[in-house]
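re: ur question from earlier - yeah i can do the single chain one, its not a big deal. heres the input i used so u can compare w yours
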Amino acid sequence: MTEQMDQSAVRTLAYRPVQVTGQLAVGGLLLAGLAWVVRGVWEIRLAVAGEPAAGPPDQGNGVHRQLTSLEDSYHLVTSAGGVLVFLCAMLFLSWLFRLRDNARTLSGDTPKYAGIWVFLGWVVPVVNLWFPRGIVVDAFRSSAPGRRLPRSVGVWWALWLVGMITGVGIVSRDSTDRIIERAYTEGWPLLLSDAAVVAAAVAGAFAVHAVTAAQVERIRTQWTAGTQVPETV
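and the output i got, formated as tokens:
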């Protein structure tokens, strides 16, 4: 019995703090969503102002006209949003690595997806349709066997796929000048795209919170079984 408790205590030492990392990931997602709310406000302003008589910023054949002050400020808004999205991505990946490592320690099983896919799973064509979600699901099921997957995980991933497959929102391939042109001519579709991105960020925040809470609960149970209770995990 003592030997089993000692082994349990040794395993708990391998757990990586995930609660604070999860909170940071939630904050990053909400900041990214806020950035897209601001973008939407600027796109409404562009639509209300109407396209200048000189036409769109990108005149074609490599010719670009001088931007108006409103168009120039939209470039600043999108650049700031890009910085926040990058920060969100780094925080999310840091959380996902810790979540995956803890899940392996809890279950004693090899993760379904190799560690390299935590990065490449987002960018490699075809597999990026399910690998990132699969990594989260695999970690959750290893951390909380028998528990139902939080609905927010499916909602988050469905909304993310809307952006990726349709080429809008965070994964848009359009240049900023092209998006400005769309704000003048395709206002509602663009705003609906923004709404999907914001909703995905909010759903992602709920998903991170739920999955993290399930793992922290299981880790604390393991610590209790080993007669040691951590202040934070």
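Residues 48 and 207 are 36 Å apart (CA to CA). not sure if urs matches, ping me
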